[in-house]
Amino acid sequence: MLVAFSVAPSGTGRTDGSVHDAVAAAVKVVRDSGLPNHTDAMFTTIEGEWDEVFEVVRRATEAVGRFGSRVSLVLKADIRPGHTGELDAKVQRLEAALERAGDA
Questions:
Q1: Is the pTM of this model over 0.85?
Q2: Domain span at residue 21?
Q3: CA separation (Å) from 73 to 14, 65, 82, 97?
Q4: Which of 8, 47, 48, 92 has the smallest CB count inside 10 Å?
Q5: Tally of domains in the chain
Q6: Angle at Cα 80 formed by Cα 46 and Cα 75, nearest 5°?
Q7: Is the pLDDT of residue 13 over 80?
Q8: What pLDDT sits at residue 12?
């Protein structure tokens, strides 16, 4: 399965509103997990089995919780049993489709 999630604290007391230190703590948990992952400007996507992925999301959320009085978690999952390597394969299929569309 693929899980894309965004986690951020609120009630941090920071005057600039930045949450980058908290997000860095979450991303460190994800990267230390050893599961395939990708982080962009809005989400971190992680690939693995249900229990292992949600354990990492839980730990990442707890890491962010240390930075504020509340935590917001947004999550989207693509559950496709029997498929692995989809973190990259989905993007490769999209790029191939775009190439074909450009040839038409």
A1: yes
A2: 2-103
A3: 19, 11, 27, 32
A4: 92
A5: 1
A6: 40
A7: no
A8: 79
